[in-house]
Amino acid sequence: MTVGTPASGTLPDTQVKAMFDRIARVYDRMNSLMTAGMHHRWRERSADLARVGPGSNALDVATGTGDLAIELARRGAEVTGSDFAPAMLEIARRKAPGLAFEEGDALNLAHPDNSFDAATVGFGARNFADLDRGLAEMTRVTRPGGRVVVLEITTPQKPPLSWFFRAWFDHAVPALGRLVGDPDAYSYLPRSVRRFPGPEELAGRMAASGLADVHWILTAGGIIAIHAGTKPGS
After folding, report:
1. Residues 118, 52: contact at Cβ < 8 Å?
2. Cα(195)–Cα(190) distance, rounded to whole angstroms?
3. Which of 27, 38, 82, 165 has its Cβ near the most Cβ atoms within 10 Å?
4. Omega before 160 within 30 of 0, i.e. cis
5. Domains of the chain
6. Residue range 10-54, pLDDT digits in tens
7. Helix, strand, or coil (residue 6)
8. Is 21 exposed, middle or buried (0-12, 13-18, 19+ CB in 10 A)?
């Protein structure tokens, strides 16, 4: 990510980077605990929507510890994972030594135009200091006819799920953060989800980045949204 003035409601990039470096050692365990292990299935569905296979290549932006990059590679694609937190990348490299992981800026991707058959981001777009710029960069590096996929938490609007969501994210998740010794990081998580655009707005912003045929899937009762769009051209 680019260091600069953060968007309203976000933390400066340097603080977000330091936070993810701090929680790298517990990140995978906390993901599994918070989602009852379902985050792997959501990444599988995201990889399916990327439509990659043998002979194709993909860029996973904000790859973290590499789980979505690994899912893409399981489909036969050549995958590069990019993240700005070195401690997260260190874990990703240990989990998948055959994949390429690089330290990178989501708002200024170090790849030429039209480099990849797909660009994905799983649970990282809400940490972009400038969401529109991050989406534009993902679109830029994707080849015409290629796919851009965004997997993210979204806020359900209807009870009773909306009541459960608020109770879980506003109270249970910060409490889990205190147990693992980083309450600030897991208080940031619900704030980052609340300020992130809902599915319809995110689809519009993906379209504004230059993507066509943008659609989304809601799963987990409406808590998870997976968006996909295609870069026009052939």
Report:
1. yes
2. 9
3. 82
4. yes
5. 13-154+197-230 (3.40.50.150)
6. 567 788 888 888 889 888 888 888 888 889 999 999 999 999 999
7. coil
8. middle
